[in-house]
Amino acid sequence: MSNGTKKQHLQFLKLRFIVSSPISADFSPDELTTLKSYGHWFYALETGQLLPISEAQEHFVAVSNGKASSETEHEKLWLKYREKWAKRMMSATEGERYSAANGNYGSAGRRDQGYKIL
Questions:
Q1: Using alpha carbons only, what angle is made at residue 48 by residues 95 and 72, rounded to the nearest 5 degrees?
Q2: What is the pTM of this model?
Q3: Spatial distance between the Cα atoms of 118 and 11, rounded to a whole number of angstroms
């Protein structure tokens, strides 16, 4: 089965994305709601875990890969999230970067469902 079926897309859309508290303050409540609802799906499209099944999704992937300019609110929001996450990782300690790269979130030990750069 390919990784671009509607069923697989819906599975990613059911997952709740966690925006880490150091950067969550940079987003409006509406933006946080959108990220929580679509973050896993955005990430899966960007990384190729899911193949796009529409022209809009193909454009999203092109934007995520720097091959097109953002046009939609979702594209702009995802780029904003990636930028904030990258800045957070640049200022993080080595231990925090290691923890994030291995799927851990903060000292509480919760799983970070967020974007991973490392």
A1: 95
A2: 0.75
A3: 25
Alpha carbons 102 and 4: distance in angstroms, whole number: 26
The region of weakest confidence among 23-27, 33-37, 54-58, 106-110 is: 106-110
- Do 22 and 81 contact (CB within 8 A), yes or no? no
Cα 70-76-78 angle, rounded to 5 deg: 115
Helix (H) or strand (E) holding 22, with range, is: helix 21-24
Q: Tell me how far apart the alpha carbons of residues 109 and 97 are, in angstroms, rounded to a whole number.
A: 14
User: What would the two tokens of residue 8 be?
Assistant: 């697989």
Domain boundaries, the chain: 6-111
pLDDT tens digits, 53-110: 999 999 999 999 999 999 999 999 999 999 998 888 887 665 555 555 555 444 333 3
